[in-house]
Amino acid sequence: MTLEAQPLGPALAAARKAGWTTLDLDLDGVRSKAELMRRLGETLRVPEWFGGNWDALADALIDLSWLPAAPGRLLAVTSWRGYERARPGDWETLREILEEAADFWARDDEGPPTPLTVLLADGPAADRRGPRPPRRGPRRD
Predict the structure, then answer these.
(1) What is the pTM of this model?
(2) Distance (Å, rounded) from C-alpha 132 to C-alpha 118?
């Protein structure tokens, strides 16, 4: 699987129509790994055990048990190019973890797969359609 930039509106509309859980990771202004982990934690609505490091993120993305049951999940990453430029190594690590998680959910051996699709939105976060979810106050660390 590869992550390629795509328009956001049509993907969100299709995911919502299919009953998928949609999550919007807005990286506008994020320039540090600590801020990235905080945003990821808020967006994914992770449980208290989330450690805010690459391994904890990988673990969280292959669990997702705290999210509502759904036929699929769409994680839309918006305003990501600034972080990609500011932290290219961390960006590559994040992409690898997201790809591994999407691949994991595509091959779930315990029943029908519950897809996790990651979309790098090609355009500003303002292109979102619909309400935003509420926010809560291989190379890894």
Answers:
(1) 0.78
(2) 16
Residue 122's pLDDT is what?
62
pLDDT score of 78 more than 80: yes
- Taking CA atoms, 51 is separated from 17, 57, 59, 121, 128, in Å, by 33, 8, 10, 26, 29
Pairing of strands 73-78, 116-121: parallel
Give the Cα separation of 94 and 79 in Å (integer): 14
Q: Does residue 120 contact residue 77 with C-beta atoms inside 8 Å? A: yes
The average confidence (pLDDT) of the chain is 82
95 three-class SS = helix
Structure tokens given for 82: 């600034």
Scored b (16 or more CB within 10 A) or e, 94-110 reads bbbbbeebbeebeeeee
Euclidean distance between CA atoms 29 and 68, whole angstroms: 29
